Amino acid sequence: MKNLIAFAAIAAAAFCVHAQDFPGSKPITIVVPFAAGGPTDRVARDLGEALQKSLGTTVVIDNTAGAGSSIGTAKVARAAPDGYMLLLNHIGMSTMPALYRKLPFNVETDFEYLGMVNEVPMTLIGRPTLPANNFKELTTWIGENKGKINLGNAGLGAASHLCGLLFQSAMKVEMTPVPYKGTAPAISDLLGGQIDLLCDQTTNTTSFIEAKKVKAYGVTTAKRLSTPALKDLPTMAESGLKGFEVSIWHGLYAPKGTPPAVLTKINEGLKTALKDPGFVKKQEGLGAVVVTDDRVQPAQHKKFVASEIAKWGPIIKAAGVYAD
Description:
The chain has eleven helices and ten strands. It is an alpha/beta fold.
């Protein structure tokens, strides 16, 4: 028994030293639960560059895509809780509990929350031949075409899918959802007139709005955006749709049980990375806003996600959408 106690004490001491020396020269892997080249992947790669400087070690990006981000998320939930495998996920952390009947993890209890990274506003856009030129005219057009409107999205649980659900709920109108395998084909069909409307991230829509290839009806933020191409676009609230505010945020997570000392070091590295001028400039270029409020703290990050789960759960369930 004494030998067992002594072994446990030695192991605990060694683990404490490991936590103090973290990360050392060992690389850190950030799992992105989406394919390479997408908005979340771009955020992860920009963040990885900044974290390499703030944490002093190599940061590797691992794209483990599929099932609305649940496959990559599960991978991190099962990983060793040592701080060397992290997860960067978006709003999907708050919508998966309602979208999926069964998940191999619990979003609120199987992860250590490290802090928020950024927020990406959304824009409501329409096909170039849509007769409505502003939100007021769009409202009239929707009223005259109930049951005939096609609303595109990039797939179950995608940002455009969630924004579309919220838009229909706010407008109290059902539209025909048209899912695609990604944003690119959805926008392609919007440009070609095969679908009528799409609500998606500024990272995906700004260039088309700037080139006047689509009709733009509003942004989903509380205030107008400062981005040159979008600064004249009214908020949805300004246009009369009160309470319609949604952004696609990203947060950083570690497996449950990661030592507190390691979590503290990662959080400190994250806060430094979020102030990196190069990272901030790249995010602004994507139309994203780097988080600087108290949500960069683990407790506030977790509290925010809980509020998002409470917000999206009823909307998703009311729409009757789910995946096995």
